[in-house]
Write a structure and sequence with these properties.
nine-stranded mixed sheet; 9 strands; alpha/beta
């Protein structure tokens, strides 16, 4: 059943987080590292129906090299340099074959997946197929920073998960670097433009899905590690932008959880 679901699954990778300096070279090196790690997955990513990589500067030679390393065809989507992180996800999704792919997995080029990450992420879809029940609308994996005191502290702040009242084992929120959707579900709820926030679009999308009664199943064994900032200056900048997100999210949280009379 797992292989059958994989044969109907698309993987969308983006390189937006790797901009700055020689961005194309940095993106290429990170993708080379990631493709090597994906090749070690317990479920071979070559079993997936489609791969999509969004980028804003990979050369044709680099794309050919990545396809050779992956051992399969890859659909490269060239995005504008001003395209933000979430719109890159949307554009990657738009390149997915809607007829051949019923499940879409989203990941980031600067993350390091555990060896069973992919299998654990799409396992709930396979389990539903085996049981003859409705598949989950979406499945959120677990993202953390690299091990260590700093990584643990920042993970507790940046990658929190909250139980959802919609279903047992569901989460109110997810992160765009480790999540899978039914194709039709993402098409309906996709990321929307937001002013004044940095990385809160997935949290707002989770709130919109919860308001619509669409549960997101949590699969904590589907684990990926996000890279830590490269410098103290980058760490400070990240903390500042995350703080801005906390402020920007407040109106959305108020509308989602407080009775209208108290808003």
């Amino acid at each position: 059943a797992l292989l059958a679901v994989a044969a109907r699954t698309a993987l969308v990778l983006e390189t937006n987080n790797l901009r700055g300096g020689d961005a194309a070279t940095q993106a290429l090196h990170s993708l080379q590292r990631l493709l090597g790690e994906l090749a070690q997955q317990s479920l071979p990513p070559t079993a997936l129906a489609q791969w999509v990589i969004t980028h804003d500067g990979l050369s044709p030679e680099a794309c050919a090299q990545l396809q050779s390393l992956a051992g399969r065809a890859i659909d490269f989507v060239h995005i504008d340099a001003s395209t933000d992180y979430y719109e890159a996800k949307n554009q990657g999704f738009d390149a997915v074959d809607a007829k051949g792919c019923t499940v879409v997995v989203f990941a980031d080029a600067d993350c390091r997946p555990a060896r069973d990450w992919l299998a654990q992420l799409i396992a709930p879809f396979a389990q539903a197929a085996e049981a003859g029940t409705m598949p989950p609308a979406a499945v959120a994996g677990r993202t953390t920073y690299l091990p260590g005191m700093l990584g643990a502290a920042l993970s507790a702040i940046d990658f929190m998960y909250f139980p959802s009242p919609l279903a047992a084992g569901a989460t109110r929120n997810f992160y765009a670097n480790n999540v899978a959707f039914q194709h039709a579900v993402f098409a309906q709820h996709r990321y929307e433009p937001l002013d004044g926030v940095y990385r809160a679009h997935c949290q707002v999308m989770g709130l919109r899905m919860q308001a619509a009664g669409v549960a997101v199943l949590h699969a904590p064994d589907s684990h990926t590690e996000h890279r830590l900032p490269d410098s103290s200056a980058e760490t400070l900048q990240l903390r500042w932008m995350r703080g801005e997100d906390s402020v920007g999210l407040t109106p959305h949280l108020v509308r989602a959880y407080l009775p209208r009379s108290l808003q």
